[in-house]
Amino acid sequence: MNLTEDSLYVWHVPLAAVRAQIDHLNGFLSLDEIAWANQFATAPLRDVFVLARSSFRILIGKAVGMPPEEIRFIYGPYGKPAINGVALRFNLSHSGDWAAVALAWSCEVGVDIERIRPIPELEEIARAHFSAAEASELLSIPAEKRITEFYRCWTRRESRLKAIGVGLSGANGQPGTWTDTRSSSHAAESPIPCPEDLFLNLLFLESPQDYVTALAYSGARRNVYQVQLNTATDLLNIQSVWNSSESEASSRRRGLARMSWRRMHA
Fold first, then answer.
1. Bridge partner residues of 89 (DSSP)
2. Do residues 264 and 7 touch, judged by C-beta distance below 8 A?
3. Which of 29, 104, 140, 204 minimizes the number of CB atoms within 10 Å of its CB?
4. CA distance from start to end of the chain
5. What is the model's pTM?
6. In angstroms, rounded to a whole number, what is the distance separating the alpha carbons of residues 50 and 48?
7. CB contact at 8 A, 28 and 68
8. How many angstroms separate the CA atoms of 198 and 175, rounded?
9. pLDDT tens digit sequence for 83-105
10. Are 195 and 164 within 8 A, CB to CB?
11. Rounded CA Rg of the chain
């Protein structure tokens, strides 16, 4: 991974594929994260948290040159993590069997992944959480296309909110400005609390089948790279570089090159 000032990386991590390594991955979590995990009502929910959070730590550690278990997070008022004194910005999302991790230097970033599944109360949720214009547009399209468009709208909103460190529960009806990078001339108002000087680029990423992933980031447009991990070995090869000789590390880096890479221009 060559994370430069003009690039941004998004990693898709297959949680089901790394589940067999959960005991090993659990060792990367901090005491507060372990306490958080133990608050989940069921073991499957706890496992998803452990798998996603430990993968998050491994990828951040790779970027900043730090073993994952030694990372100490600080948290914003709505819970968005950062590392004190480090300009790396990062965000995590997970849904179903996949997690998405976004990493960038010196720009705010938010990512959201959602598994597409039926929602009987779709209209009620759209009217409650989307702007009037978004809800009206969604409900005007043919019913058979509505569910996918719902998740596109949801992930678009959530990624923007996460980029500014609010999260969906923090939206309070204040207008914000975002730029949809599918059209460089398109901008729209949306009820997002956003600082006046923060403009967010938005794009939808190639995603695993039956998933939608949206990315938002601040500042100038960047080269956006996607990496899809395929196995637990892919993830552990990233982590194991820390305790390897140079020759072993080089071999593992060559292994990482065989993973699924995509480059997108924001």
1. 104
2. no
3. 140
4. 18
5. 0.82
6. 6
7. yes
8. 12
9. 999 999 999 999 999 999 999 99
10. yes
11. 19
